[in-house]
DNA sequence: GTTGTGTTGTTACTCGCCTACTAACAGACA
DNA sequence: TGTCTGTTAGTAGGCGAGTAACAACACAAC
């Protein structure tokens, strides 16, 4: 972890660059005067006074009105808690309002022939799980690697299976199939000849003959946590019906005992 | 709750003004084209395209690449979760680094004759509880109203009392004294003639003859949740010894059965 | 089939505000 | 006398807000 990264993270948490640098400098110093802080933080001394006042207002710093003035940070746990509480307060305010106005214009309508794109592993997983939960007759789920099978997806598959939906899990990867081998109500299958033998394919959901989600994994950048999975999904459209059929045809139904 | 407030809150959560407006507009519409979003959000149509792309990158919006393009928000719970996870990720990064560099310059040193100021009810409560926990011989705690006696402070007082520290709770307010009347190890007292009969006094901690914290309550502004309590505290200083003695003298030790 | 109108998606531009950063000054102190 | 402190003022740059323009497309009217 580099200091520059920490500064950027504190900026994303709402601090200015100077505030972040001063906060970190005070953690290093324990306590200090404006001059000491300025040197460690590489912030102009004349700016330290107003910057630390801002941090004090935010409850992140304590000030001793002596001569020279002394500054010290609050405890790290206290600082995190302060920032988290501010975050939760703003979330409550924002989403409280959003809850109150949602769909005030006429309800959520799903366009005919609509194909939606979405990005980010978490969101793809969330949407996949939701499509599984909404299935009424059958679900085929495919994933290239076990880490693409989130707990939420696994739970949704099991819940659908115990609820009477025909559930099949398909993968070239035996580790993925193994996840469900103990589930009597879930069939696991190999795909002898994958339609696309591309290591960038991610996961797929095929449900009820007219619901389809497919994802691809993008090139991993320098930042491992950067979500690079992109998916499209479509439901109750002609696209969905056609894609569903194409995908099902490409799956060789060689069942594994 | 006004829309302006919600927009400001979303801005504090890291969105730009346009992003916040578009996000809220999509919640109202359920889904919509750039033109529809522009009208509802009062954002120039030409800006909606890049703004929604930014929201999609953040996992807050789904896009249908049709003609015209259609946009829809992810579920509210999903959006909150996304923002919270981003917040926690940045917190982990920032504070992970801060943990690693804390006091690298020579440990936390408490200046001789230091008097520290701090603001915000939460921080004052936190510091007060900490001073109580650190007491070894005696503690006197005073508060004007019961809401100034947080659970943390109450727990700290009880813990100190059962640990052998002489604990006394002093208040002109019978509701405050009542909080501890069932605690055999905590003495509660009235102050027959308060030293300062000012409704802006907040709370006080007097410990071990040389630890003092005193707070005042500021004028409450239009925003009730704005923390307006300011405190100073000092420990093991001559100030502390003198202030401790002065404060103790002003407390009439008329014990209540 | 042509024309006029409205819409779409994209690009470029200006302005204002906020932050980063520098400079200067009066007073205190060794 | 030099250094430090706390305060104030100023400039520059970057980013977001907001406007303008354009090519291409869709659609209705004739």
Describe what is shown at a glance.
The structure is a homodimer of 257-residue chains. With 257 residues, chain A is an alpha+beta fold.
Task: Describe it.
2 copies of one chain form a homodimer. With 257 residues, chain A is an alpha+beta fold. The first copy, chain A, has 2 domains: 3-79, Arc Repressor Mutant, subunit A (Orthogonal Bundle); 116-255, 2-Layer Sandwich (Endonuclease, Chain A). Chain A has helices spanning 3-12, 17-29, 34-41, 45-57, 76-101, 121-134, 151-162, 174-178, 238-250; strands spanning 61-64, 70-73, 116-119, 138-143, 166-170, 186-190, 201-207, 211-217, 229-235, 254-255. In chain A, the strands form 2 sheets. An 8-stranded mixed beta sheet of chain A has the order 3-9-8-7-4-5-6-10, sandwiched between helices. Chain A has a two-stranded antiparallel ribbon with strand order 1-2. The first copy, chain A, starts with a helix and ends with a strand. Chains A and B meet through helix 1, helix 2, strand 1, helix 5 and strand 3 of A and helix 1, helix 2, strand 1, helix 5 and strand 3 of B. Chain A binds a DNA duplex (30 and 30 nucleotides) through helix 4.
* Quaternary organisation: homodimer
In what range is the share of β-strand residues of chain A? 15-25%
Find the count of extended strands of chain A (DSSP E, 2+ residues).
10
Greatest interface and its residue counts? A-B, 76 and 76 residues
Please name the CATH topology of the largest domain in chain A. Answer: Endonuclease, Chain A
Give the % helix of chain A: 40-55%
CATH superfamily of the largest domain in chain A: Endonuclease Chain A
Number of domains of chain A: 2
What is the chain-wise order of helices and strands of chain A?
A: HHHHEEHEHEHEHEEEEHE
Shape of chain A: elongated
Strand line-up in the sheet with most strands of chain A = 3-9-8-7-4-5-6-10
User: Biggest sheet of chain A: strands, sense, closure?
Assistant: 8 strands, mixed
CATH class of the largest domain in chain A equals: Alpha Beta
Roughly what is the average pLDDT of chain A, rounded to an integer?
82
| CATH architecture identity of the largest domain in chain A | 2-Layer Sandwich
Intertermini distance of chain A: 48 Å
List unreliable stretches of 5+ residues of chain A: 107-111, 221-226, 252-257
Structural class estimated from helices and strands of chain A: alpha+beta
Work out the helix count of chain A. Answer: 9
- CA-atom Rg of chain A in angstroms: 26 Å
């Amino acid at each position: 972890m580099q200091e520059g990264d920490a500064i950027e993270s504190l900026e994303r948490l709402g601090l200015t660059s100077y505030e972040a640098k001063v906060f970190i400098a005070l953690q290093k110093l324990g306590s200090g005067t404006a001059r000491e802080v300025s040197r460690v933080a590489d912030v102009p001394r004349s700016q330290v006074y107003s910057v630390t006042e801002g941090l004090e207002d935010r409850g992140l710093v304590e000030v001793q009105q002596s001569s020279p003035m002394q500054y010290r940070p609050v405890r790290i746990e206290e600082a995190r808690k302060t920032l988290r509480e501010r975050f939760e307060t703003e979330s409550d305010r924002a989403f409280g309002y959003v809850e109150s106005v949602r769909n005030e214009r006429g309800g959520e309508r799903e366009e005919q022939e609509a194909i939606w794109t979405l990005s980010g592993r978490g969101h793809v997983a969330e949407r996949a799980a939701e499509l599984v939960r909404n299935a009424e007759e059958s679900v085929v789920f495919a994933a290239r690697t076990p880490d693409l099978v989130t707990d939420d997806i696994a739970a949704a598959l099991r819940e659908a299976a115990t609820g009477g939906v025909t559930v099949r899990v398909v993968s070239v990867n035996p580790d993925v199939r193994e996840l469900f081998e103990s589930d009597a109500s879930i069939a696991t299958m190999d795909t002898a000849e994958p339609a696309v033998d591309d290591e960038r394919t991610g996961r797929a959901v095929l449900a009820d003959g007219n619901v389809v989600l497919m994802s691809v994994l993008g090139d991993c950048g320098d930042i491992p946590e950067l979500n690079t999975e992109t998916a499209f999904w479509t439901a109750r459209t002609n696209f969905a019906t056609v894609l569903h059929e194409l995908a099902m045809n490409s799956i060789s139904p060689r069942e594994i005992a």
